[in-house]
Design goal:
It is a single chain. By secondary structure, this protein is an alpha+beta fold. Helix content is 43%, strand content 20%. Strands 1, 2, 3, 4, 5, 6, 7 and 8 form an eight-stranded antiparallel beta sheet that branches. A hairpin with a 2-residue loop joins strand 3 and strand 4. It is elongated.
Protein backbone atom coordinates (compact mmCIF):
# COMPACT_ATOMS: atom_id res chain seq x y z
CA UNK A 1 0.00 0.00 0.00
CA UNK A 2 2.80 2.37 0.93
CA UNK A 3 4.67 1.57 -2.29
CA UNK A 4 1.54 2.31 -4.34
CA UNK A 5 1.08 5.63 -2.54
CA UNK A 6 4.74 6.54 -3.09
CA UNK A 7 4.57 5.62 -6.77
CA UNK A 8 1.37 7.64 -7.25
CA UNK A 9 2.97 10.61 -5.53
CA UNK A 10 6.05 10.35 -7.74
CA UNK A 11 3.93 10.13 -10.90
CA UNK A 12 1.90 13.23 -10.02
CA UNK A 13 5.06 15.04 -8.94
CA UNK A 14 6.80 14.31 -12.25
CA UNK A 15 3.71 15.30 -14.23
CA UNK A 16 3.51 18.59 -12.31
CA UNK A 17 7.17 19.32 -13.00
CA UNK A 18 6.73 18.33 -16.63
CA UNK A 19 3.77 20.69 -17.03
CA UNK A 20 5.66 23.57 -15.42
CA UNK A 21 8.73 22.96 -17.58
CA UNK A 22 7.94 20.69 -20.57
CA UNK A 23 10.55 17.97 -20.89
CA UNK A 24 11.80 18.22 -17.32
CA UNK A 25 10.06 14.99 -16.31
CA UNK A 26 11.83 13.12 -19.10
CA UNK A 27 15.22 14.33 -17.86
CA UNK A 28 14.49 12.81 -14.45
CA UNK A 29 13.98 9.46 -16.17
CA UNK A 30 17.10 9.86 -18.29
CA UNK A 31 15.10 10.40 -21.51
CA UNK A 32 17.19 13.34 -22.72
CA UNK A 33 16.19 13.11 -26.40
CA UNK A 34 12.50 13.34 -25.60
CA UNK A 35 13.10 16.42 -23.44
CA UNK A 36 15.11 18.10 -26.20
CA UNK A 37 12.45 17.24 -28.80
CA UNK A 38 9.62 18.73 -26.74
CA UNK A 39 11.49 21.95 -25.99
CA UNK A 40 12.54 22.26 -29.65
CA UNK A 41 8.94 21.82 -30.88
CA UNK A 42 7.69 24.51 -28.50
CA UNK A 43 10.43 26.97 -29.41
CA UNK A 44 10.25 26.38 -33.17
CA UNK A 45 6.44 26.61 -33.30
CA UNK A 46 6.40 29.82 -31.25
CA UNK A 47 9.17 31.51 -33.24
CA UNK A 48 7.67 30.43 -36.57
CA UNK A 49 4.24 31.89 -35.78
CA UNK A 50 5.69 35.10 -34.31
CA UNK A 51 8.43 35.83 -36.86
CA UNK A 52 6.18 35.04 -39.83
CA UNK A 53 3.65 37.63 -38.66
CA UNK A 54 0.88 35.03 -38.30
CA UNK A 55 0.66 35.95 -34.61
CA UNK A 56 -1.17 39.10 -35.74
CA UNK A 57 -4.06 37.10 -37.19
CA UNK A 58 -6.81 35.33 -35.27
CA UNK A 59 -6.00 32.14 -37.20
CA UNK A 60 -2.32 32.33 -36.28
CA UNK A 61 -3.11 32.75 -32.58
CA UNK A 62 -5.52 29.80 -32.67
CA UNK A 63 -2.96 27.61 -34.46
CA UNK A 64 -0.29 28.48 -31.90
CA UNK A 65 -2.61 27.80 -28.95
CA UNK A 66 -3.78 24.47 -30.42
CA UNK A 67 -0.22 23.40 -31.25
CA UNK A 68 1.13 24.29 -27.80
CA UNK A 69 -1.82 22.60 -26.08
CA UNK A 70 -1.32 19.48 -28.21
CA UNK A 71 2.37 19.33 -27.33
CA UNK A 72 1.56 19.68 -23.62
CA UNK A 73 -1.08 16.93 -23.71
CA UNK A 74 0.99 14.49 -25.80
CA UNK A 75 4.05 15.33 -23.71
CA UNK A 76 2.42 14.20 -20.48
CA UNK A 77 0.57 11.21 -21.92
CA UNK A 78 3.83 9.87 -23.36
CA UNK A 79 5.55 10.41 -20.01
CA UNK A 80 3.03 8.11 -18.33
CA UNK A 81 4.20 5.10 -20.38
CA UNK A 82 7.56 4.51 -18.63
CA UNK A 83 6.10 5.62 -15.29
CA UNK A 84 3.30 3.03 -15.32
CA UNK A 85 5.36 0.17 -16.76
CA UNK A 86 8.03 0.17 -14.07
CA UNK A 87 10.72 0.83 -16.66
CA UNK A 88 12.09 3.88 -14.88
CA UNK A 89 15.61 4.16 -13.51
CA UNK A 90 15.95 6.71 -10.76
CA UNK A 91 19.45 8.15 -10.71
CA UNK A 92 20.72 11.03 -8.61
CA UNK A 93 22.53 12.43 -11.66
CA UNK A 94 19.28 12.62 -13.62
CA UNK A 95 17.55 14.46 -10.79
CA UNK A 96 20.41 16.99 -10.70
CA UNK A 97 20.33 17.44 -14.48
CA UNK A 98 16.55 17.82 -14.28
CA UNK A 99 16.93 20.67 -11.80
CA UNK A 100 19.47 22.37 -14.07
CA UNK A 101 17.18 21.84 -17.08
CA UNK A 102 14.29 23.40 -15.15
CA UNK A 103 16.33 26.48 -14.24
CA UNK A 104 17.66 26.95 -17.79
CA UNK A 105 14.31 26.44 -19.57
CA UNK A 106 12.46 28.65 -17.08
CA UNK A 107 15.11 31.36 -17.41
CA UNK A 108 14.96 31.17 -21.20
CA UNK A 109 11.17 31.41 -21.18
CA UNK A 110 11.21 34.32 -18.72
CA UNK A 111 13.85 36.20 -20.72
CA UNK A 112 11.96 35.66 -23.97
CA UNK A 113 8.65 36.83 -22.50
CA UNK A 114 10.08 39.85 -20.67
CA UNK A 115 11.90 40.92 -23.85
CA UNK A 116 9.17 39.77 -26.25
CA UNK A 117 9.18 43.16 -27.99
CA UNK A 118 12.63 42.36 -29.38
CA UNK A 119 12.82 38.56 -29.32
CA UNK A 120 9.33 37.79 -30.64
CA UNK A 121 8.32 41.09 -32.23
CA UNK A 122 5.15 41.67 -30.23
CA UNK A 123 3.90 43.16 -27.00
CA UNK A 124 0.64 43.11 -25.05
CA UNK A 125 -0.99 46.25 -23.68
CA UNK A 126 -4.14 47.09 -21.75
CA UNK A 127 -6.54 49.83 -22.83
CA UNK A 128 -7.68 51.73 -19.70
CA UNK A 129 -9.88 54.45 -21.20
CA UNK A 130 -12.58 55.14 -23.80
CA UNK A 131 -10.49 57.59 -25.86
CA UNK A 132 -10.39 55.20 -28.84
CA UNK A 133 -14.01 54.03 -28.63
CA UNK A 134 -15.57 52.33 -30.59
CA UNK A 135 -12.39 50.89 -32.17
CA UNK A 136 -10.90 50.13 -28.78
CA UNK A 137 -12.69 50.19 -25.47
CA UNK A 138 -11.68 50.08 -21.82
CA UNK A 139 -10.73 46.53 -20.85
CA UNK A 140 -9.28 45.50 -24.21
CA UNK A 141 -5.98 43.62 -24.13
CA UNK A 142 -4.32 44.37 -27.46
CA UNK A 143 -1.46 42.74 -29.35
CA UNK A 144 1.14 45.11 -30.78
CA UNK A 145 3.55 44.61 -33.66
CA UNK A 146 6.86 45.89 -32.28
CA UNK A 147 9.09 44.71 -35.14
CA UNK A 148 10.98 47.11 -37.45
CA UNK A 149 9.94 50.21 -35.50
CA UNK A 150 12.87 52.25 -36.85
CA UNK A 151 12.33 51.35 -40.51
CA UNK A 152 8.54 50.94 -40.66
CA UNK A 153 6.63 53.21 -43.02
CA UNK A 154 3.91 54.64 -40.80
CA UNK A 155 0.64 55.56 -42.50
CA UNK A 156 -2.46 57.60 -41.77
CA UNK A 157 -5.02 55.52 -39.83
CA UNK A 158 -2.38 53.29 -38.16
CA UNK A 159 -3.26 52.86 -34.48
CA UNK A 160 -0.10 53.25 -32.42
CA UNK A 161 1.04 52.85 -28.82
CA UNK A 162 3.51 55.60 -27.90
CA UNK A 163 4.90 57.64 -25.05
CA UNK A 164 6.01 61.24 -24.77
CA UNK A 165 9.57 62.33 -24.15
CA UNK A 166 8.71 63.92 -20.82
CA UNK A 167 6.41 61.05 -19.77
CA UNK A 168 8.12 57.87 -20.89
CA UNK A 169 6.33 55.74 -18.28
CA UNK A 170 2.87 56.79 -19.48
CA UNK A 171 1.54 55.14 -22.63
CA UNK A 172 -1.02 56.44 -25.11
CA UNK A 173 -2.96 54.67 -27.84
CA UNK A 174 -4.06 56.92 -30.72
CA UNK A 175 -4.60 56.90 -34.46
CA UNK A 176 -2.30 58.67 -36.94
CA UNK A 177 -4.27 61.46 -38.60
CA UNK A 178 -3.56 63.97 -41.34
CA UNK A 179 -1.70 66.97 -40.00
CA UNK A 180 -3.56 70.26 -39.84
CA UNK A 181 -2.70 72.57 -42.73
CA UNK A 182 -0.52 74.78 -40.51
CA UNK A 183 1.67 71.77 -39.63
CA UNK A 184 1.67 70.06 -43.02
CA UNK A 185 5.25 71.05 -43.86
CA UNK A 186 6.74 69.89 -40.57
CA UNK A 187 9.23 67.04 -40.12
CA UNK A 188 7.77 63.89 -41.79
CA UNK A 189 8.91 61.89 -38.74
CA UNK A 190 6.45 63.89 -36.63
CA UNK A 191 2.87 62.61 -36.49
CA UNK A 192 -0.49 64.04 -35.50
CA UNK A 193 -2.16 61.60 -33.12
CA UNK A 194 -5.89 61.69 -32.34
CA UNK A 195 -8.28 59.45 -30.44
CA UNK A 196 -11.30 58.07 -32.30
CA UNK A 197 -13.53 59.25 -29.46
CA UNK A 198 -12.61 62.82 -30.23
CA UNK A 199 -14.65 64.40 -27.42
CA UNK A 200 -12.99 62.26 -24.71
CA UNK A 201 -9.40 62.07 -25.96
CA UNK A 202 -6.28 63.83 -24.75
CA UNK A 203 -4.09 63.90 -27.85
CA UNK A 204 -2.02 65.99 -30.28
CA UNK A 205 -4.52 68.83 -30.02
CA UNK A 206 -3.12 69.37 -26.51
CA UNK A 207 0.43 67.98 -26.51
CA UNK A 208 1.42 68.50 -30.15
CA UNK A 209 3.10 66.23 -32.69
CA UNK A 210 4.78 62.96 -31.69
CA UNK A 211 8.09 61.79 -33.15
CA UNK A 212 8.15 58.24 -34.49
CA UNK A 213 11.05 57.45 -32.14
CA UNK A 214 8.43 57.47 -29.39
CA UNK A 215 6.31 54.83 -31.13
CA UNK A 216 6.34 51.51 -29.25
CA UNK A 217 4.21 49.39 -31.56
CA UNK A 218 1.29 49.19 -33.94
CA UNK A 219 -1.99 47.84 -32.54
CA UNK A 220 -2.98 44.81 -34.62
CA UNK A 221 -5.51 42.65 -32.79
CA UNK A 222 -7.68 42.61 -29.67
CA UNK A 223 -6.67 39.49 -27.79
CA UNK A 224 -9.55 39.54 -25.36
CA UNK A 225 -11.87 41.65 -23.26
CA UNK A 226 -13.12 39.98 -20.07
CA UNK A 227 -16.37 41.96 -19.98
CA UNK A 228 -17.09 41.61 -23.71
CA UNK A 229 -15.99 38.21 -25.12
CA UNK A 230 -17.42 39.14 -28.53
CA UNK A 231 -14.37 41.38 -29.01
CA UNK A 232 -11.89 38.52 -28.50
CA UNK A 233 -9.42 38.03 -31.38
CA UNK A 234 -10.83 40.99 -33.32
CA UNK A 235 -8.61 42.60 -35.96
CA UNK A 236 -8.06 46.32 -35.24
CA UNK A 237 -8.86 48.64 -38.14
Amino acid sequence: MFNLFRKTLLIFGLLAINITSPGCGYITLGLYRSAFLIQSLLIISTLSICWSGMIFTSLGIKILLIFVASIYIANNIYLLIPLTKNTTEWKLRNIGVSGLFFIMSSSLFSYGFINKQKTLGFDINFVPSQSMKPTLTAGDFILLDTSSLKTRQWSTNDIVIFNRENKIDYLYVKRINEKPLALAESDPALFYMLGDNISASYDSREFGLIHQDNFLGKAEIILFNISDPARNLSIIR
